[in-house]
Write a sequence for this structure.
């Protein structure tokens, strides 16, 4: 086993820890609390949580999915976000190794997970998350000398979503999705932006069918499109260029 492979368990554990922090950030953003607060608390009884309450994934199962202090149920969001973050970090590292690109992608993954969960729960995409995300994405594309492709992606995504927003007067898509298009367009520069676009609609359609089939949603219910966009963005972030190359070869254009 090479040195890079030996680091994978550590990257996974690091992802679990960061996932626990992201859960705290998501809760504090919604509760209007500072993300720099020292102590985490139970969302139900507001009791400060100790170290043994905050061991990623393990504490949830040790406690039987209930708060130690008020015995109220703990949301499955907490272990799910921790595990997803750990898996996402492992994927990013496995593909890119230790590099500046990896550090950027890991940080970007954190933004994507926060947006995914927050939009899924609250149907809202916060500017205080989007703005630093856009700045990070722009800096990365400038560093890669790829700013203009990033700008093209941002204009394509946000422009299309903006058109849908205007035509539907906000019924089909929220303005938060228009702003999210700027972030994701810079993150996934043109032409990989097209992969993100189609993946988002495919994922959205599949999830919508599943929710309708199980009666979780009705035909007139809203769906958090930002959630589908961020999931598609993570896939395109790792494999978008390969997907574009495969499609062009399929068409005989390369």
């Amino acid at each position: 086993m090479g040195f890079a492979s030996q680091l994978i368990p550590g990257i996974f554990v690091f992802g679990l820890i960061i996932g626990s922090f992201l859960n705290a950030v998501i809760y504090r953003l919604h509760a209007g609390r500072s993300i720099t607060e020292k102590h985490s608390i139970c969302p139900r009884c507001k009791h400060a949580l100790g170290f043994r309450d905050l061991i990623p994934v393990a504490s949830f199962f040790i406690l039987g999915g209930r708060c130690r202090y008020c015995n109220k149920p703990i949301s499955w969001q907490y272990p799910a976000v921790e595990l997803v973050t750990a898996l996402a970090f492992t994927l990013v590292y496995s593909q890119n190794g230790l590099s500046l690109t990896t550090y950027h992608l890991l940080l970007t993954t954190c933004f994507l997970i926060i947006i995914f969960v927050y939009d899924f729960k609250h149907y809202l995409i916060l500017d205080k998350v989007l703005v630093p995300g856009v700045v990070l994405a722009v800096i990365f594309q400038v560093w890669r000398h790829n700013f203009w492709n990033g700008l093209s992606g941002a204009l394509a995504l946000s422009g299309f979503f903006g058109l849908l927003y205007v035509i539907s007067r906000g019924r089909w898509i929220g303005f938060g999705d228009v702003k999210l298009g700027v972030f994701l367009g810079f993150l996934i520069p043109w032409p990989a932006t097209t992969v993100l676009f189609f993946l988002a609609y495919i994922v959205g359609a599949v999830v919508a069918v599943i929710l309708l089939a199980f009666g979780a949603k009705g035909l007139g219910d809203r769906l958090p499109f930002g959630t589908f966009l961020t999931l598609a963005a993570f896939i395109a972030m790792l494999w978008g260029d390969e997907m574009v190359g495969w499609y062009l070869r399929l068409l005989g254009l390369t």
Summary: The mean pLDDT is 84.
